[in-house]
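Researcher: Next entry in the queue.
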Amino acid sequence: MKMERQHKRVKKVLFSALLIASLIIFTVWLAGRFATLKIDWSFVIPTASLIGGTVPIVWSILNWINDKFEEKDSKIKDELTAKQDEIEQLQADYQVLSEKVLEMRKEVGIFRRILYKIEARLEVKGEQCSGEIASLKNTLSKVSNE
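Model: Structure for this entry, 146 residues:
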């Protein structure tokens, strides 16, 4: 939208500049012709026709330039739309992955609790085992002393 306005402004400014330049050239030429007091209308009409003929040519060139800008704008808009679609897809993928990560964290928490319970049981069993080992050592040392 903003680019279209700029293109229209550029088009208007260039057209106005061309028109003003044509009028200045025509006026200077006409003043030169009148200054000599020798008016030859055979040059006035072709010059006016030439100036009038160049305006549509310049106008068509400006339209062509404008079309090129519009093509680039449409390409850029298409690329932007594709990138926005990509971003939306990536956001959806991120959402799915973050939900999976939360589920995995819950599972890890469950496994940690189970491991802590197993560790606590092993500690209790280990204390019992160490007591039995100590008594066996005592018994072994008594037996070896006798």
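Model: The chain has a mean pLDDT of 77.
Researcher: Noted, moving on.
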